[in-house]
Write a structure and sequence with these properties.
about 180 residues, about 85% helix, mainly alpha
Length: about 180
Amino acid sequence: MTKTMTALTRDPLLAIAKGLLWFLMASMAIGVAACFVAIPLLLFFQNDISVEMAKEMPLVLPQFFWVVSGILVFAAILCGVLFRIFQLLKRIVGTVGDGDPFVPENARRLTEMAWLSLVVQLLGAPLSGLGAWINRIGEGHTHIETMGGISGNGLLLMLILFILARVFRKGAEMRAELEGTV
């Protein structure tokens, strides 16, 4: 039995974390693919959709389809960024399972995750704005939740990740110094 497999069977939390991260990564990959399939379909079938929407929404602007396409582009980018965050976290979990988390690579991974969490925050602002615009032109017929934007929790996560990156970097340095003195 491999070292990683032994660690996973010994620590079910790591196995659950790895499984959940695989699921989240797959979900994000599907999200990216769905957005990039939906954009051309939305624009190709724009006339057919306009006819159906006109029954409920008398004011269907041509810009509506470009705004929805913009939302899908931002959503695809957001899913791609989240995929990368989950991928980096899975690799960190892997080093924990191997019994060697304090490696310089994990410090780099945490730093990258912190920057990516800032990107997630920044992508939320235009998504929220585009959703609000659709709500305005929908005249009460459409409602898109506009919970995007910059959140305190997201900024706190970014700060925690930057601090953890420093902790891991310092831990790796201390371990290297200790190994050098022995």
